[in-house]
Amino acid sequence: MGFLSTVPATSNSNVDIHNLTTTVYGSAIAGRGAPRFELAEEEMEPRVAARFIHDHLLLDGTPSLNLASFVTTYMEEEAEKLMMEHLSVNFIDVEEYPASAEIETRCVNMIARLFNAPVDTPESEALGVSTIGSSEAIILAVLAAKRLWKNKRKAAGKSTENPNIVMNAAVQVCWEKAARYLEVEERYWYCKPGQYVLDPKEAVELVDENTILVCAILGTTYTGQYEDVAGLNDELEKKNKELGIDVHIHVDAASGGFVAPFVVPDLIWDFRVPLVCSINVSGHKYGLAYAGVGWAIWRDKSFLPDDILFTVNYLGSPQVSFTLNFSKSAVQVIGQYYQLLRLGKTGYRAIMTNLTATADFLAQEILDIDQGERFELLSEINGAGLPLVAWKLKNLGKYDEFAIARTLRSRGWIVPAYTMAPHTETMKLLRVVVREDFSRDRCQIFLRDLKDALKQLDVTPEVVLDHQAEQHLQQAAAKHKRSHKHRRHDNHSLQGTAGKTHAVC
């Protein structure tokens, strides 16, 4: 038989009922919100912290639909697994991780040879270093060139004041940063209507005895066009002889360095050009590695003065260092090596050829809209430039390129609209970057959505379009204010002086 049992009362005054729940959204933190600006006093369960960060990041755009960026959004599972396995490796510690250091050396050698670096004798061997991206690589190249110029001027008893760099005003903002941080005057060749890449003769006219470098861009971020490095070399050789100077060329191959060798191998732009002293390239763009890896390559040791190199005894191992960063994970360099090893020349050639074909297909389809009466193409085809499509409206109507970009964004596509470089800034354009995961199928879906967006805009009253544009500006201003970012506009950069908008990289 059963017995009647008593149930003693217990105090639960110190028990948080939220700690008894097994669901993230039943937790106390779900009720009051995650900390935003101040470190919380108490710790949080790992699954709760992970879930709230995950939910917050849902507000980001979808990387595969981000057609604004050159940065890689796809790598194979084997590469991702390999990178995760070595996430904790401190790349700088070659004493403890010599295999990782060897991988960097292998990558430098492969890329230098891809760029036709001289390897005939030990005295003329190229050398290079991994960086966080092309921005760091460019700053290092400018630093090396400035110090080399300064040392030569000192030895000759000449002034070391007022060094300058000659470049297209369409350069990426990292060039402005390098010049400003390192106190080098920026001398710009400005774009003209119909001409958005450097004119070699006009650019060299800006060169004088204080010029430390001339920059050539292998694939501008605005239109993807390649600048004429060989032509620039010819003009600069004449100027050097005329003035008795020794100015060299740096090639900003951030985007084109892993494209041109496979699509247009006969294009002479790299170390085959006599005056090219250094090249940067972004491994995380068409090098097909995830964000966080770039490369700086110099023709030979003579372009890297000893007084900017540091021998560091790090954990018992002497190392020569030339970098703006120190401790960092080895995963980006490992990811780059995986791609170089996995793909080889055949794999890269196949991918870059496909991307070029997809870009050509997209360009032609856009041009064919309304029997060719709607758009004008600004980028190149058939591999003459980067695999991207830049285009503009032929005629000014009731909506502009920014309205098209906003309408596409409502369908999930991130397509940048921006104004051209200074002196051509009245021109607006759109740009789609064709990356590895932008397949022909995805391209056709994008074209469908682009045509639907145009139909929608065509039937929308102009007063509504004007209201939407004004509302977008107000929302953008409010968003910037909420972000707590410092946004004081300067009056000395190209943005401050000419209203330059930088194409997304």
Automatic annotation (TrEMBL):
<feature type="compositionally biased region" description="Basic residues">
    <location>
        <begin position="478"/>
        <end position="490"/>
    </location>
</feature>
<dbReference type="InterPro" id="IPR015424">
    <property type="entry name" value="PyrdxlP-dep_Trfase"/>
</dbReference>
<dbReference type="GO" id="GO:0030170">
    <property type="term" value="F:pyridoxal phosphate binding"/>
</dbReference>
<feature type="modified residue" description="N6-(pyridoxal phosphate)lysine">
    <location>
        <position position="285"/>
    </location>
</feature>
<dbReference type="GO" id="GO:0006538">
    <property type="term" value="P:L-glutamate catabolic process"/>
</dbReference>
<protein>
    <recommendedName>
        <fullName>Glutamate decarboxylase</fullName>
        <ecNumber>4.1.1.15</ecNumber>
    </recommendedName>
</protein>
<comment type="similarity">
    <text>Belongs to the group II decarboxylase family.</text>
</comment>
<dbReference type="Pfam" id="PF00282">
    <property type="entry name" value="Pyridoxal_deC"/>
</dbReference>
<dbReference type="GO" id="GO:0005829">
    <property type="term" value="C:cytosol"/>
</dbReference>
<feature type="region of interest" description="Disordered">
    <location>
        <begin position="475"/>
        <end position="505"/>
    </location>
</feature>
<keyword id="KW-0456">Lyase</keyword>
<keyword id="KW-0210">Decarboxylase</keyword>
<dbReference type="GO" id="GO:0004351">
    <property type="term" value="F:glutamate decarboxylase activity"/>
</dbReference>
<dbReference type="InterPro" id="IPR010107">
    <property type="entry name" value="Glutamate_decarboxylase"/>
</dbReference>
<keyword id="KW-0663">Pyridoxal phosphate</keyword>
<dbReference type="InterPro" id="IPR002129">
    <property type="entry name" value="PyrdxlP-dep_de-COase"/>
</dbReference>
<dbReference type="InterPro" id="IPR015421">
    <property type="entry name" value="PyrdxlP-dep_Trfase_major"/>
</dbReference>
